[in-house]
Design brief:
Elements: H1 15-54, H2 56-80, H3 83-92, H4 99-122, H5 125-130, H6 135-149, H7 152-167, H8 172-194, H9 204-228, H10 246-277, H11 282-318, H12 322-349, H13 351-358, H14 362-377, H15 379-394, H16 399-422, H17 432-462
Helix pairs in contact: 1-2, 1-8, 1-11, 1-12, 2-4, 2-6, 2-7, 2-9, 2-10, 3-4, 3-7, 3-11, 4-6, 4-7, 4-10, 6-9, 7-9, 8-9, 10-16, 11-12, 11-14, 11-15, 12-14, 12-15, 12-17, 13-14, 14-17, 15-17, 16-17
């Protein structure tokens, strides 16, 4: 195996040289991850825009369906995310014989998760009834999810195989196949939604079929690549199949379940906030959604660096270089804070032009501008918390971070946001801004607690004596 993607640290370098070298490695690992994340976000944008041109009911149905499958997918994807640090650690320790067995255990987990997710999605009608949707919109939502469910095994297969490719330092692989999936999804949406090539117009349901097919094609292409590529010649995916090993599966789940639950907690919180804001009217909801979309887009940069940080820290621990892992974990906070300050300043200065890009409605623009100012204020806390939690995952520390996130978001952020939004208990009701103050408070709490955890954890790991 070459060391071009994850180089062995050079101890003779100065502190500054080692820091800059590690940051360069993060950029090389994180750049393709960022492109892959943006490609996946583009799928959601494409579905929303094209369904919206079909009808308002199709747009609403696809939006509701997406809000139901996305948290579930993130839960299972997070569980499978344990494979990246495990495999990266094996590669760092040059334990190559252990890589394919653990990959196969991940594939078995993905298979079971696929069955569970499909069963939940095709039986979601009771949940749809809670939204009190009109009959047509509810029927489209269920049809969309029924079609989407066919592609779930392919999505989770890619998530599991990402553990192998990213864990080995080849993050460009998933980038390439994520872009491929997006490029396929666009024409398939056009065909299925509007009824082309002799097919009937399916509207929002067509989005589900297009996503399933594009995921299936991308997954099949990825399998072919892994079995024929010279890069992965020493890892024979099909030839080295191993039977389920329950002890190994349990080890993966012990690491992965807290990761998945942490991501689920954060994703579900934003869904719940949107539901709470619904009674305040469409202008408030629209402004909130625009601000959230802007923040989510910017968040892809620190998130991608964080994912690269997990890979690098686990590699360094496996390679027997805890001092460099310690250096990288702490110095990455400087890098993260710099990015956050840039993003925060940009949001504050350009809040009006950004709002005008999304809508021409003055009322919606005003709400968006106010919320973007709050978003600018919490950038540092948001970026630092994701950096800390990513570094801790590299050390395979996931349970305590999960508890910290659960406390910060659901015990602190949500109650405070609700009180500030709807009541006069502390100050006069703030409307939608109250939830954003709650978000800021939760993120500050998470960044402080996770930062303390990382500082103590790296000190113990770097100085075990």
């Amino acid at each position: 195996m070459d060391e071009t993607h994850q180089p062995i640290p050079e101890p003779r370098q100065s502190l500054v040289q080692r820091t800059l070298s590690e940051w360069r490695t993060l950029a090389l690992l994180g750049g393709p991850i960022l492109v892959a994340q943006l490609a996946q976000m583009a799928n959601g944008v494409i579905d929303t825009v094209m369904a919206g041109h079909a009808s308002a009911e199709d747009l609403a149905a696809v939006g509701i369906g997406s809000s139901l499958w996305m948290p579930l997918f993130l839960l299972f994807m997070g569980m499978l995310g344990a494979l990246q640090p495990i495999i990266s650690g094996y590669r760092g320790g040059r334990d190559f014989d252990r890589i394919m067995p653990v990959t196969w255990q991940g594939l078995y987990i993905a298979a079971v998760a696929s069955v569970l997710m499909i069963l939940l999605l095709i039986n979601v009608r009771p949940v749809l009834d809670l939204f009190r949707l009109d009959t047509e919109t509810a029927a489209i939502s269920q049809g969309y999810l029924n079609a989407f469910a066919w592609g779930v095994p392919a999505m989770l297969l890619i998530a599991a195989l990402r553990g192998l490719t990213d864990g080995l330092g080849h993050t460009k692989v998933i980038m390439a196949f994520s872009v491929l999936g997006t490029l396929i999804n666009l024409p398939l949406n056009y065909i299925f939604i509007y009824g082309k090539l002799g097919l009937p117009a399916m509207g929002g349901v067509g989005c589900g079929w297009a996503t399933s097919l594009s995921n299936g094609i991308a997954a099949l292409a990825l399998l072919v690549y892994l079995n024929r590529s010279a890069t992965f010649r020493s890892f024979h995916l099909l030839a080295e199949r191993t039977r389920p090993d329950w002890a190994s599966i349990v080890r993966i789940l012990r690491l992965g379940v807290p990761i998945g639950f942490t991501i689920f907690v954060e994703a579900s919180m934003f869904c719940v906030i949107a539901l709470f804001l619904a009674p305040l009217g469409p202008v408030i909801v629209a402004g909130h959604q625009i601000a959230l979309n802007v923040v989510s887009l910017l968040f892809m940069v620190p998130l991608s660096i964080g994912m690269a940080l997990t890979l690098r820290v686990s590699f360094l621990i496996g390679a027997g270089a805890p001092a460099t892992a310690h250096l990288l974990s702490r110095s990455s906070l400087i890098l993260a804070a710099s990015i956050a300050l840039f993003f925060g300043t940009t949001l504050f200065v350009f809040s009006e032009p950004v709002a005008s890009l999304y809508t021409t409605d003055p009322a919606v623009q005003n709400v968006t501008i106010v919320l973007l100012v709050f978003a600018a204020a919490f950038q540092v806390a948001d970026v630092i918390q994701v950096t800390c939690i990513s570094a801790l995952r590299g050390y395979k520390d996931t349970r305590m971070p999960m508890m910290i996130m659960l406390f910060s978001f659901w015990a602190l952020s949500m109650p405070l946001g609700y009180i500030l939004t709807f009541t006069d208990w502390l100050i006069p009701a703030m409307g939608a801004a109250g939830f954003w103050v709650g978000l800021t408070t939760g993120l500050v709490s998470a960044s402080l607690l996770l930062g303390t955890r990382l500082f103590l954890f790296t000190r113990v790991r770097s100085h075990p004596g």
